[in-house]
Amino acid sequence: MRRADGSAGDADYGTIGRGYTYYRRPDPAIASAIVAALGDAATVVNVGAGAGSYEPHDRAVTAVEPSASMRAQRPASLPVALDATAEQLPFASGSFDAAMTTFSVHQWGDLAAGLAELRRVATGPVVVLTCDPDTLDRFWLADYAPEVIATEARRYPRPALIAELVGGQTTVTTVPIPLDCSDGFGEAYYGRPELLLDPGARLANSAWSFVGPEVEERFERRLRDDLASGAWDARYGALRTTPEFLGSLVLIVARPST
Fold this sequence. Notes:
Layout lengths: L12 H4 L3 H4 L4 H11 L4 E5 L12 E5 L3 H5 L25 E5 L8 H11 L4 E6 L9 H4 L1 H10 L3 H8 L2 E6 L2 E2 L20 H5 L9 H17 L1 H6 L7 E2 L3 E7 L3
Parallel strand pairs: 1-2, 1-3, 3-4
Antiparallel strand pairs: 4-8, 5-8, 6-7
Pfam family, one: Methyltransf_11
Protein name: Methyltransferase type 11 domain-containing protein
Organism: Leifsonia poae
């Protein structure tokens, strides 16, 4: 199903994506991991490209994004994104040296078809940045809004399934999340809980759009109380000075079999 603004997944990015570029800025450390995974690929297709986070600036990038609101937020320095979905890429086989997608596979209507398309159009690595649903509960949010974690766990495909569907020589690597992470996905706030009290920060994480207002109200009330009383810091305060968090963020790299 495609929504009014073209969003192809279960979330309406015409609504939740409006402040995306403010809260979801690419993090340099995560970007470096993606660039390394792309290797020497000179041409790259970025599928589910959104506002352009993590598109390497030193390659020829072709961006694909079905959401009109996300395409509109792409900065002028990036190429205009094509309106298409992962399952039906409008390119000949082997058109690119590599394919990439970040925080996108959980939105696809047909995961197998989308991954097959990435493999079809890329002669080299297929790079997928996503989250492992089995490790989402490492994040303290599981104690404050378990409904959000449960929603994410239902939506994200397991890395092993992604690796199996892409095929080839595949690695799955946990990506450390830095304390000052500039990409505001949920776990980016592991050591900065106050920032997740911002409704805009939560809106930029699609899982919150699937829970009712009573969940958000309870989350805000309890977290504010625990921060004020010191209860959060008594349990999780060490995270404030933990330089990296090993949570659910993973990088899957699939190279063709030789």
